[in-house]
Amino acid sequence: MVYRPRPTHQPGVSPKTIASILPLSFNLSLGAIALSRKPEGRSIFLKAHMIYLNVAGLSPFKQDVQQEITTTLEQFSRLLYSDEGIHYYRETVQRCREDLAQWLQVEDGQRIAFVPNATTANWLVLSRIPWKSGDQILTTTHENSTVLKEIMALQPRGIHVHTLDPSSPDELETQIEQLLKSRQVRAIVISHVSHIDGRIFPIERLYRLTQSYHALLIVDGAQAVGHIPVNFPDWQPDAYFFPGHKWCAGPMGTGALILGKPFVEPDENDRNEEEETKQPAWAAFELGTQNIGLIAGFAKACAIKQQEGLKTATLESLREEVRQTLSETSGVKFLEWEGPHSPGIFSFTCLDKQTELHLQSKPHNIVWKIFPLPKDLNRTGIRVSWSSDTAKADLESVLTFFQDNY
Fold first, then answer.
1. Are residues 250 and 336 in the same domain?
2. CA distance 101 to 122
3. Over the stretch 141-160, which tens digit does the pLDDT of each residue have?
């Protein structure tokens, strides 16, 4: 059944979303501009080495990706909307669509829609579902704030939201099955990998539950694709989306939405009309003209990721080293659950306010993610994330920083 209600509101847009950011290629070891103050109070800028440990937020991309963006846009700028230009535009987007399908092992590339980010993909999916008052949504405290915002925006329409905070995969599965049995659950909206602490949610098990109880499974794969294996041939959620700028190491302003049967197959009542004017599945989700330069760069980044592999063993080795060093450090508590974690993310919180304030003040050149804890918004956690390109010396410098200071 195809869900086609028109969107009723625009997704939340933050200033950083509105800002126009040019594609930029850079390495993990960066030259940062640090702010300092002279005795007389005037600010000066000093060149400093930046240790970048926020790959889960924005991953640096390679020069080949930048070159693909530039080459594609230069070619299109010569053709514009001539017949040849329109052909080049359509051919480029379709080629990139098929390349992604091949990498992700999605059988039908027409089920992949290009989107500017995961937030937009989530909004598009939720807006296409014909919600009824009394419908229930299941989600977790580990969802991105922009995803949760769109979920909560459905409440005035009589939609009830259950936000779960399980301590293990078994507990999550039990809680969800109980709610599926007792409530009118229309959809489960959940991350594949938590952006907070890197826990891997049991998507395959949840897929089987949603199939049994006829609920939709909508998955945010922002921290999964390009980071951990994603086996689409084994399970097919009703919608799965991810951005290009995180673990795929592609440009900002890119992403993909993989559509399942409810968003692809026409309703029986609409089948005759659909057959007369049949459109590919992605057509209902790609809004307006696409930036084919960014899409080409996104596809190039995914091709590089496919060629190089996930390098899971390398990431796991780095995570174990971080965990072991921090276990010998007083004043911190690990943020983990009794289940699997992704290999490129490690999170912790501070046990005392002094340590927390010191780390928040950043008297150092380390870039990481600071976030409020889901259970206690007055306390903060710190997330460090890395890729196989992260310099070993940089990671060792961070660990030495902790050993020397805490």
1. no
2. 20
3. 999 999 999 999 999 999 99
